[in-house]
Amino acid sequence: MEHALLILIVTIAISTILNVVLKRYDIPTVIGYVLAGFAITSIFHFAEESKAFLMHLAEFGIVFLMFTIGLEFSVKHLKSMKKEVFVYGGLQVTLSGLLFTLLGYFLFDLQVTSAIVVGFALALSSTAIVLKILNESHDIHSGYGRASLGILLFQDLAVIPILLMVSFFTSEGGSVGTMLLETIGGAAIIFVVLFLLGKYFIERFFDWIMSTDSEEIFLVAVLLGVISASYFAEAVGFTYSLGAFLAGMLLSETKYRYRIEADLIPFRDILLGVFFVTIGMLIDWHSVLNYAHYIVGLLVVIMLLKAVLIFGILRLCVQTRTALKTSLALFQVGEFSLAVFALARSHDLISSELNQILIITVILSMIITPFVLKNIKKLADAFKSEPETLRERAIVGTGYRDHVIVCGYGPIGQKVVKTLKERNMLYVILEHDVRVVDAVLSEGEEAIYLANAAQKMVLSHFNVEHSAAIVVTIENELQRRLICENIASFSDRVKSVVKVNNEEEEKVYKQMGITTVINARDTIANLLSQEVLVCHLS
User: Whole-angstrom Cα distance, residue 409 to residue 403?
Assistant: First the structure.
């Protein structure tokens, strides 16, 4: 255990220093984490069990990522994405897998079984990197974001039959029929438990948790739900990430969706960092030197063929720029392929040399990805300029635009909403008290959400940058201050209206950049004075 703790300390130290330096040059943190992992294995020599500890810890990063993605996509939303998941995803995995299988068999002289496993592993893209960056850039709901997500979801499902293929090719007495039956049975169990039983239990469970009024207990309950669903999916033969995604979809139907998402973001980002460190730890610098020409050639061929194939599939169904952006987003090979290669190597389907070449090729493709995604608009413009009439607009969060965000649904918030309703203005209410939300929902008000506006991610989710205005009516001074600090961190185009209690607060918020500050004490005093004058004149 002491070695495990030592490797964790060294990992955090190197990652922090590298990312601070790289951030000055606007290089994504993913690269810093991968380089940190490579540095650790090249400079220090830790026991394999210590590395295994870090890799097990890193799996939670993917779990939390897929859970938060699931929160964004309810069952209803996923039904609307049938084409993206099953048509685009199915065609991409099948055609890419077959193409790389043929290349492996004819050009690299692999055995048929080895070529199939390697070919379909190379068809997978990086869920961790692509979805992380799409979330950060708020492109997850754009045209190419939806297409990318759909294809990645199908790829996650495809991991299961690919791993089954490895077991089938290497088993001596196993039956493919039995394996398929076990997989179908496992899928049925997951859907029954998570969607039928969970639908009648989960919201009541969180209502009970919320009755404690404890943030700590609420967070523990969320972690329990995520980890339990992941373990359950793995126990019946699926991946941890698929279980987490399904759990997120289940909770997306509840009123706790936004609060859960905001609470889990820090855990997700930290553990994803650990995951990328473990990716860097797989690189053997001796292999980089010995097989550099093979690696570079393979890297170019795989990325080019994959991008062209994805573009060709999507071009028939979507706009050219959407197809182009999706192909640029998914040209890399993903982290799940590394698990396939590890299993194939353990069963002697591929040699250790080929395994290391493939691993380094995959990691290099993942390292290139953040730079491409960060400049995806410029790259797309280089191939096809964006027509003004068909400009892609990302639908952030709930899809609201030119709306009024009302933070707090107390007496003042209610009066503000009433006025907005009378004028037929689009609005959304953010309220952190579950009792208030329950009461308002029962009255038929659908535009209220259980969410803590003091968290920047929540404001971003509700598209504050493209709102008509944001009104803060919170009475709690600390909460009001946090919300205003978050508003000020966005662009100065955001029109904000905040109620304060005194001149000191008014001065602070004006310096902060809040557009309109209403001093309640002065306003009431002015109204009283006016009334006195009216009485006197009459």
Answer: 16
